[in-house]
Amino acid sequence: MSVIIVGAGPTGLMLAGDLAAAGVPVKVLERRVEESNLTRAFALHARSLELLAMRGLADGLVTQGVQVPEVRPRIKGRELVFNMRHPESRFPYVLILGQARTEAALEERARGLGAEMVRGAAVVGLTQDGEGVTLTLAGGRTERADYVVGCDGAHSVVRRLLSVEFSGRSHDTRIVLADVLLQADLPLAVNPFIGDDGAVLLPPYGNGWFRATIWDRTRQGVPLGEPVSIEEVRDALLRITGRDLQVASMRWSTRFLSERRQARHYRAARVFLAGDAAHVHSPLGAMGMSTGLQDAANLSWKMAAAHRGWAPQWLLDTYESERHPVGRMVLRMTDLLRRLSEAPAPVRLVRPYVAPAIINHPRVSEAARMTLSGLGVSYPVPAGVPGSPLAGTRVPDLSLVIGGRAARLYDHLGDGRFVLLQAAGADTGGRAVGQPWHDRVRTLDCDGPLLLGKASTILVRPDGYTAWTATYPDAARTREVLRGWCGRA
Ligand SMILES: Cc1cc2nc3c(=O)[nH]c(=O)nc-3n(C[C@H](O)[C@H](O)[C@H](O)COP(=O)(O)OP(=O)(O)OC[C@H]3O[C@@H](n4cnc5c(N)ncnc54)[C@H](O)[C@@H]3O)c2cc1C
Question: What is the CATH number of the domain that holds 245?
């Protein structure tokens, strides 16, 4: 089986690396010849860092970025604290890091694993039949593969060629992005300022540089093509934050229109859509790139399973049934943040009094933290496999002891295989029970307990979610579950 990925953004690069790691012949077609000069996404949330940790990339990226443990919204002078110190994760913060760094790490991995990268290849045509997909490139050349994944961004040509509806709307919300050097002191936090004139987000890149995301109510009519001047940024920051943040320099800026749209389907026969090609939304919440990385992690092991010939019939379809609801939830969350920022006059009057009550409410703030970080994502149990406690939820990076040596679960994920964890004393036949599935299941017999609920046995999906947990199941039951998820031995 061969796969072509259209688009070498973060989603396509993550997917390419995963497929190559699993031995799937994969080619990436990218329209751009040069690296993009757009810095775009600035944040990696905890779940994205966990997914990158499974691929051995997180530690290197963490050393390049700034770890920010809280969000400190100021609403007309009132300062609130929203905690992002995730106790359940090895990454208890938001990592502020320009998108280009994440893309560079993903591209290096994908190339190193053997993914073929073709730049200057713009896809303009697509047809598919029962056996494969043919893509036409600008210039007339064609490429063919068994499957194609459109990771070609918000204006996806693949999505258009499939005639998949991109339903939603453009908010008439014009946003300015600018990387600015500030001389004023701001705390180590994502710093949102919400004022009568608009909203500003100021996360720190380090060394005094900040990414300013500005929604200025008074300048919504400005054409998107008009360059952003440092004076415009200074004026907007002063009016909206009510403080002179002393903008000393600006190294990059752009203007764009925020949209809220989602593809009605993520799959059309042999073609899939992922990342911005499948969903776009307001940058408030900084969830765009993270959602694309999760899409890739969800799809890659299912395609690898199809390549190896063991995927149950239903497996590839779960990409859409699992990721479409997550995309919808991200659209809702980011839209809520947008509405809070853009509130009409009557709401603005009460906002400084109502917002603290909402943000400080433990249930609300916990739900928002889990949604923004991606740690709260879980998937329904597919029909045809047994349910169990915790099935479908994220598995943390468990500390394990294997053969007397300390180990971490995530170091054993990332190559498209399941992990069958068995605690000491679990009467499941040890490694022997997983042996017939060894090409798709890595069995880890642990010296101690597993420290996840009461489970003595956990089948972990290749993307780090629970397939099944049990307390001292017999070997026959474990085999039945392996057959359900991983096909016949
Ligand atoms: C101005 C702007 C600011 C943003 N700010 C933030 C932010 O602050 N935080 C955040 O989390 N997210 C932000 N985002 C969103 C974030 O950048 C995206 O969610 C992320 O880049 C999505 O990655 P992707 O790989 O799905 O798509 P993209 O990064 O868009 O990559 C798509 C790739 O496909 C290529 N391509 C397109 N058409 C074709 C074709 N026909 N043939 C071949 N190749 C093609 C493109 O050249 C591109 O390289 C922002 C987006 C924009 C536009």
Answer: 3.30.70.2450
Residues 331 and 439 both lie in one domain: no
Instruction: Quote the CA–CA distance of 253 and 314 in Å, as a whole number.
Output: 45
Could you read off the pLDDT of 217-269 as tens digits, one per residue? 999 889 999 999 999 999 999 999 999 999 999 999 999 888 889 999 999 99
User: Which protein residue has the closest C-alpha to ligand 1 atom 31?
Assistant: 9
E strands, 33-165, in order: 43-44, 66-68, 70-71, 74-75, 78-79, 82-83, 94-96, 116-119, 123-128, 133-137, 142-145, 147-150
The answer to whether position 65 is within a domain reads: no
For 272-329, what is each residue's pLDDT tens digit?
A: 999 999 999 888 888 999 999 999 999 999 999 999 999 888 999 999 999 999 999 9
Q: Which atom of ligand 1 is nearest to the CA of 295?
A: 26
Task: Domain count for the chain, please give it.
Answer: 3
Q: Whose CA is nearest to atom 51 of ligand 1?
A: 40
Tell me how far the alpha carbon of residue 278 lies from the centroid of ligand 1, in angstroms. 11
- Mention every residue, 6+ apart, whose C-beta is less than 8 A from residue 316: 267, 302, 303, 306
Pocket of ligand 1 (CB under 6 A): 6-12, 29-32, 40-43, 99, 122-123, 151-153, 157, 177, 254, 256, 275-276, 283, 286-289, 292
Rounded-to-integer distance, Cα 5 and Cα 203, Å: 32
Q: Which CATH number belongs to the domain containing residue 481 in this structure?
A: 3.40.30.120
Atom of ligand 1 at shortest distance to CA of 157? 41
* SS3 state at 238: helix
Residue 174 belongs to domain spanning: 169-258
Mutating to test ligand 1, I would choose from 18, 152, 256, 266 the residue with most ligand atoms within 8 A of its C-beta, which is 152
C-alpha–C-alpha distance, residues 435 and 482, integer Å: 11
Indicate the DSSP class of residue 35: P
3 state DSSP class of 257: strand
Residue 403 shares a structural domain with residue 421: yes
Ligand 1: which atom is nearest the Cα of residue 29? 43
